[in-house]
Amino acid sequence: MTNTLALLLIGALTFSCSEQASKETTVAENATNQVTAEQLDHLGITNPDHLSAASKRALTWSTEDREPWYVEFSGMQPLKGDLAYEEGVVRRDPSAIIQENGKYYVWYSKSTGETQGFEGDIENEKVFPWDRCDIWYATSDDGWRWKEEGIAVQRGETGSYDDRSVFTTEIMKHDGMYYLCYQTVKSPYNKRVKNQVGLAWSNSPDGPWTKSKEPILSPADNGEWKGDDPNDRFAVLKKGDFDSHKVHDPCILPFKGKFYLYYKGEQMGEEITFGGRQIRHGVAIADNPKGPYVKSVYNPISNSGHEICVWPYNGGITSLITTDGPERNTIQWAADGINFEIMSSVRTPPHAIGINRSLDTETEPVGALKWGLTHVYNNKDYQSIMRFSSNRKVKY
Ligand code: AAL
User: Fold this and answer.
1) Do 25 and 37 meet the contact criterion of CB atoms below 8 Å apart?
2) Is the pTM of this model over 0.85?
3) Residue 330 belongs to what H/E stretch?
4) Are both 129 and 147 inside the same structural domain?
5) Residue 47 and residue 135 in one domain
6) 295 Cβ partners below 8 Å, 6+ apart?
């Protein structure tokens, strides 16, 4: 139990329920926490001498008004033109949308053909829909009808760290330069393969793109596999850090004069916890967009989540946490980009969101989610990019 919580509970337990107790009575006080009669009333706690585990947790919540953080997503809608669903083609994991030269731009993972999985000839087959991808891009005048412009970043030559697949990309514009960060896999793509993060840059959203010779982020190397079955990722002698197996879903944001690379970590010997995968997020920070990126000593910075979806708001960073873990389907915010608190919970958020960075993110905390891109599984082999929208939820 943290000291803060201990103090708070001691305070709560000594609270007198007497009729005389003033409404302002403070029952526990320390530098960061006060439990007041109003708080107990607000939470509907009848008897502070008998707090359930749930009530103890609730007493740690801030009493700040959270309504501006409530958001409601509408159904997803198909795109038109080249990004409409196409049988035989995978288009997935859209980047953020940016507006340049009067057009919207998006980058995404693209591959073709069915997925065979890990049972067969992995040297020549496709193990996942995101295997054997290149990064493509498309433009649009209205965000509905898209024109596929071509390849932005291609897989590397045989033997290079990105020779098997480059995928799940994010775009950042900074100081007139464009940066694409993305996942990389080197062949052979077995279940123990370590995924890394690559970077490419250009002075135009249309390229050409220059790729980093080395990855800018790699998994922690302090885990130890058990046995040598390359397709058993659950057998470990030691799991290692939260990101000992894969660093995924990278997204770089300029923040406080530095560059914050947010990412999803996968751990060797991953377990199922809270009914979902054991997935957490981390951040690595650099002075320059090209790195070197140094992992924060506070990692992991989430205990839940999946694909990274982050945007700046009110001098801090907001993060939409979806899919896995006890805090899935929540919006969280951190003044320092590291210590995130839950601001609201969200019903059915879209997955793999590409934030629309041309929107106003400052007027409303959830303004960045008004509309953007996501993907759906049309079937197990093929995915397509869709459009989502949302509104601030003001009434219940
Ligand atoms: C997604 C992302 C990453 C994974 C795969 C493709 O949900 O987390 O991008 O590698 O699935």
Assistant:
1) yes
2) yes
3) strand 330-334
4) yes
5) no
6) 217, 220, 243, 282, 283, 284
Task: Give the pair of three-digit tokens for residue 93.
Answer: 């994991």
With a 6 A CB cut-off, is 307 part of the ligand 1 pocket?
A: yes
Q: Are residues 79 and 55 in the same domain?
A: no
Record the tokens describing residue 92, joined without a space: 């997935």
Q: pLDDT tens digits for 182-240?
A: 999 999 999 999 999 999 999 999 999 999 999 999 999 999 999 999 999 999 999 99
DSSP, collapsed to helix, strand or coil, labels residue 284 as: strand
Closest CA to 355 of 69, 104, 130, 167: 104
Mutate to test the pocket of ligand 1, among 90, 93, 266 (most ligand atoms within 8 A of CB): 93
Quick: pLDDT tens for 54-69. 999 999 988 888 999 9
- CA 128 to ligand 1 center in whole angstroms: 10
- Bridging pattern class, strands 80-81 and 145-153: parallel
Q: Which helix (H) or strand (E) holds 57?
A: helix 53-58
Any ligand 1 atom below 6 A from CB of 249: yes
Q: How far does residue 24's CA lie from ligand 1's centre (Å)?
A: 50
Whether residues 153 and 261 share a domain: the answer is yes
Q: Considering 61, 93, 111, which residue would you say is the last residue of a domain?
A: 61
Q: Where in the sequence is the domain holding 136, given as residue range(s)?
A: 68-392
State both tokens at 126.
């496709």
If you measure from the C-alpha of residue 282 to the centroid of ligand 1, how many angstroms do you get, rounded to a whole number? 15
Q: State pLDDT tens for residues 152-189.
A: 999 999 999 999 999 999 999 999 999 999 999 999 99
- Check whether residue 221 and residue 343 sit in a common domain: yes
Between the CA of 57 and the centroid of ligand 1 the distance, in Å, is: 32
* Number of folded domains that form the chain: 2
